[in-house]
Amino acid sequence: MSTSTVVPPRKRLSEGLTVTQKVFIRSRNGGATKIVREHYLRNDIPCLSKACDSCQEIVVPDASNQLPKFVLSELPQPLPNGIGKHYVVLDTNIILLAIDLLENPDCFFDVIVPQIVLDEVRNRSYPVYTRLRTLCRDSDDKKRFIVFHNEFNENTFITRRENETINDRNDRAIRKTCEWYASHLTKHGIKIVLVSNDRLNREAAQRKQENQAYVTKSLFEYVSLLPNAEDIKDLIPNTDSTELSDNKDEEGLSEFVFPEYYSTARIMGGIKNGVLYQGTIQISEYNFLEGSISLPRFSKPVLVVGQKNLNRAFNGDQVVVELLPESEWKAPSSIAMDSEHFDVNDNPDVDESEELTDKTNSIIISDKQRRLLARDAIHAQKSKKVQPTARVVAVTRRSWRQYVGQIAPSSVDLKNGGTQNVFVILMNKCLPKIRIRTRRAVELLDKRIVISVDSWPTTHKYPLGHFVRDLGGIETVEAETEALLLEHDVEYRPFSKKVLECLPKEGHDWKAPADLRDLEANSKDPLLKNRKDLRDRLICSIDPPGCVDIDDALHAKKLPNGNWEVGVHIADVTHFVKPGSAVDAEAASRGTSVYLVDKRIDMLPMLLGTDLCSLKPYVDRYAFSVIWELDDNADIVNVDFTKSVIRSREAFSYEQAQIRIDNLEQKDELTLGMRALLNFSIKLKNKRLAAGALNLASPEVKVHMDSETSDPGEVEIKKLLATNSLVEEFMLLANISVARKIYDAFPQTAMLRRHAAPPATNFEILNEMLQRRKGMSISLESSKALADSLDRCEDPKDPYFNTLVRIMSTRCMMAAQYFYSGAYSYPDFKHYGLAVDIYTHFTSPIRRYCDVVAHRQLAGAIGYEPLSLVHRDKHKMDMICRNINKRHRNAQFAGRASIEYYVGQVMRNNESTESGYVIKVFNNGIVVLVPKFGVEGLIRLENLTNDVNGAEYDEVEFKLSFKDKNSGKIRDVYVFDNVEVQVKSVLDPITSKRKAELLLK
Amino acid sequence: MSRLEIYSPEGLRLDGRRWNELRRFESSINTHPHASDGSSYLEQGNNKIITLVKGPKEPNTRSQLDPNKATLRVTTNITQFSKFERSKSSHKNERRVLEIQTSLVRTFEKAIMLHIYPRTMIDIEVHVLQQDGGIMGSLINGITLALVDAGIAMWEYISGVTVGLYDTTPLLDVNSLEENAMSSVTLGVVGKSEKLSLLLVEDKIPLDRLESVLAIGIAGAHRIRDLMDQELRKHAKKRVKHASSN
């Protein structure tokens, strides 16, 4: 890309503003385009140092009339070796490599990020860019990061020279910035330190300036200068290119070599020609050496089997794959395999070479043949058991984040006090071990630690990473809770000061005005006059016992015309959480509250969630009310939405409410209303089921905690009362009514929730099992047919069988998802599980962000207040939906993991024999579900029999026959079999993870 | 979606301007004295526009003849090389171009004293040599200058500018990158007043933000009017000097 460089003319427009042209060549789709853009240079860009007095005079306010804040301290941290007080200027490679380190509160203060670096970071990795931006925004007093717009400053802007590459030019721009800062701040005695891992850049800096106006250091050198260097050195990312050790990590190399990734050009060409495919890889839960990729061209996922074929892909990475020749197509493996038990004895220092068949590389296939192969592959998926397989040829986007794990004890040399390489086994079973270098290996044994993955060079069998921090001892409640929150990417830190500042100043003393027409109150809140006073209605709330964030309350009142007025009142969160405020941004990013067994991670600060918004009894609260007129058949005559003020008369638990309704002595108006609600709810439910709503099941259990010691007591299967369904029915009704209303008002951006019909392929295996074993089948024609066929799956001898089938079909379902209405056409809005054409979430704004958006949209739809732009913009709604879908999923997983942990703790104390069901049969084991604890576990063949080779696996009959360990007789185990298993909780010696171990009796 | 930092937290736009700054504005008039009765060449940022005014003259066809006032006609030639990528079509009868022409005619019908030129036609020809966003505003400015050069009686200057709205920040005089990334409004402002002869809203824009957008747009248009005025006076001085020396 060398151009005959004509230096673009600069033209002075006015005092302090010059214009020039930026000329560059962009190649896209094979063509080259010359791009000319205007580029304005100015003299009003401040250095943002508090020490500087000249820059104070040049600053100008921005669009909201705010002057820039001067952030960099006048007394920055001093360094030894004659450097003294200093500011740091970062190079791009440091930010991309060590963003974790930059975020560390104990190092990197007073940092200048040149704009050119920021731009480069943004082009290379957008997530890192966002983190850097957050760091600059939120680090006012503590870390003091700023962005300096060197490209727009007339003193630091440079034009590209002839034959200079763009990278060299950018490096020069960074050095120019350093020079400018150094000379700008000399009189205040503040030095500039340029931190860069690019040796050429550092050398150029040293060559250029003999007088050493500023200092250059590599990351390692810089960290070594810090007073707390010893602690921080462990946190420096581990890559082969860093000059951490000059011996170049020789021990880490081995003969085991992964195939190199294809070049970008080849990938682009391949994808275009249809010989390479791009998709997200999903590693099998049971076998970490087997992945699958869903590709739009293929009806079923394509398999990727084996370490070499996976080629360094992580679970969730976006990868490019190439089909393997037909001779290597396989059936999905029926072997279960964990990374923790695989190659346990690998030495982190010497990677031994692996004997993997490497035929693929020797076979050369032309593009034409590949296309034929693809056709065969699609055909094979439809007809045969053998599945086409593929291999990864490139990873386009890494899903790397921070992971929780623990050091594999076998990899630690206890006598070695210095730095050593050790393996970290991650909690997520689908991921490989990570190799890290640390000095504290011995100290960190038996601790849960957080690590971050840095790179995976072809010559290493395992990826390289570095230690981030330790969470505490294994099996301690704090460490385990934090680990599981981190693993599921749940934000659990306390709310920041900026968020808390958004709350009402009155705090807990906030009160709804006694009179809505009060002039003073109206002048403070101009929208107050649009609120309806519903304090005369007999409203009550029904929730689980001990609930403090009460989202919803209900009332029913007989109307003179014989119909009923039924109201659902939802906490008016959006009165307090205004769009664009810090608390809104925080809630949007958290997306949902997370419920763990012993802990709740709130989406909104406590003051709102449990007090001001919560519809507590006996006090006035703001609410958003949906009020229907229902006739005796529970058909809607009329519906009305309004913001209101309510006063809940009583907060019931499900049980209390049930008792009150059942007690025929009680004849007061509130109870009569509740009885009416119950009657309506039964009618509503029947209607819903008649329309084909599904009644699915999950093996949900609840852990009882000892109230004093907060030790887990016993495990109980969740019970359902009629009052549960009372509340649920009205919430569903409210959600549906609101969904219709907001879709009507905002046809393009309404926040909705859909549940797609499951593809038939999902049910194939389950249906085959049912057919073979029980002679039953599940129909997928419609949700009604599915519901009916599920009802028919009864085993007269075993009442639990029906629930088991429901549990298993739940797993075949698609996940429901949030979306904005412009994303799908109306027929696709359908909620399959509930059998309604349109649905949203409106009723729990305290704990879900979707509901907050729905509230705002409904307020806009009824003309209460204009809807914020954010919720009228498709692109922004898309971002919100994506985030809350992800958060919702993570919250569910975190909740389940928490239950799993506590169930493990309960079982630890009492070993027992329970009845369980076989739900999957593998070549080398069976998976058993124990309903009482809601746990399932794999029983390996080794634990079933002494004669592993004598076992027979019949995949048509879903049968495993083996010689029983105890009796010595041949035993056949089929899927769906009810078996007695011994349940105990064991600590896995390698992963130190407690899990249920099942043994067949 | 583009991942550009349209408006940085430090208050700078993609090209280094602040929110309320116009692009480079350079103009000259009477550039094509032989080809037309009035002409102008305008550079507003990287928009480069030649405008030629012919008339008042006898209409070509009878249908263009109006006994009470002059007929105004605008033809726009958006050249194939005006954007970064050469376009294949000539843009001649494109809907978008026809729409631009109609709105330009409407804008200037009110500003020109058409009634003093009955039974004539005023033909305006615009050639866009290069475009970089906010083209409509630049077209208005170019036409105003050329009309003045042609000596056609007008009530006031019309100055045009495009204002974008990025989140809650209005950005004055958007370039093509900005225009593609957000919704924008084009104004044609009458002289130094707050009267609009054109308000072109082609994207969705929240009503509650429109006021601040209009405010900065009007201020920007007034600034453009002053720049045009300066140029005209400079030119006039030269002409007068030239004439007197003869």
UniProtKB/TrEMBL annotation, chain A:
Cofactor(s) listed: Mg(2+)
The keyword Ribonucleoprotein is assigned to this record: no
InterPro entries in the record: Dis3_CSD2, NA-bd_OB-fold, PIN-like_dom_sf, PIN_dom, RNase_II/R, RNase_II/R_CS, RNR_Ribonuclease, Rrp44_CSD1
Cell compartments where the protein resides: Cytoplasm; Nucleus, Nucleolus
Gene Ontology terms: cellular component: cytoplasmic exosome (RNase complex); nuclear exosome (RNase complex); nucleolus
PROSITE patterns, A to Z: RIBONUCLEASE_II, S1
Keywords: Cytoplasm, Endonuclease, Exonuclease, Exosome, Hydrolase, Nuclease, Nucleus, RNA-binding, rRNA processing
Main location: cytoplasm
Single biological process term from Gene Ontology: nuclear mRNA surveillance of mRNA 3'-end processing
SUPFAM superfamilies xrefs: Nucleic acid-binding proteins, PIN domain-like
GO molecular function: 3'-5'-RNA exonuclease activity; endonuclease activity; RNA binding
Record-stated family: Belongs to the RNR ribonuclease family.
Protein name: Chromosome disjunction protein 3
Species lineage: Eukaryota, Fungi, Dikarya, Ascomycota, Saccharomycotina
Automatic annotation (TrEMBL), chain B:
Subunit structure: Component of the RNA exosome complex. Specifically part of the catalytically inactive RNA exosome core complex (Exo-9) which may associate with the catalytic subunits RRP6 and DIS3 in cytoplasmic- and nuclear-specific RNA exosome complex forms. Exo-9 is formed by a hexameric base ring of RNase PH domain-containing subunits and a cap ring consisting of CSL4, RRP4 and RRP40.
Family that this chain belongs to: Belongs to the RNase PH family.
Domain Exoribonuclease phosphorolytic: 21-152, 157-219
Subcellular location field: Cytoplasm; Nucleus, Nucleolus
Coiled-coil residue spans: none
Primary localization: cytoplasm
Domain of life per record: Eukaryota
The protein, known as: Ribosomal RNA-processing protein 41
GO process terms (BP): exonucleolytic trimming to generate mature 3'-end of 5.8S rRNA from tricistronic rRNA transcript (SSU-rRNA, 5.8S rRNA, LSU-rRNA); nuclear mRNA surveillance; poly(A)-dependent snoRNA 3'-end processing; rRNA catabolic process; TRAMP-dependent tRNA surveillance pathway; U4 snRNA 3'-end processing
GO cellular component assignments: cytoplasmic exosome (RNase complex); nuclear exosome (RNase complex); nucleolus
Matches recorded under InterPro entries: ExoRNase_PH_dom1, ExoRNase_PH_dom2, ExoRNase_PH_dom2_sf, PNPase/RNase_PH_dom_sf, Ribosomal_Su5_D2-typ_SF, RNase_PH
Organism the protein comes from: Arxiozyma heterogenica
Gene3D superfamilies: GHMP Kinase, N-terminal domain
Recorded GO MF terms: RNA binding
Keywords attached to this entry: Cytoplasm, Exosome
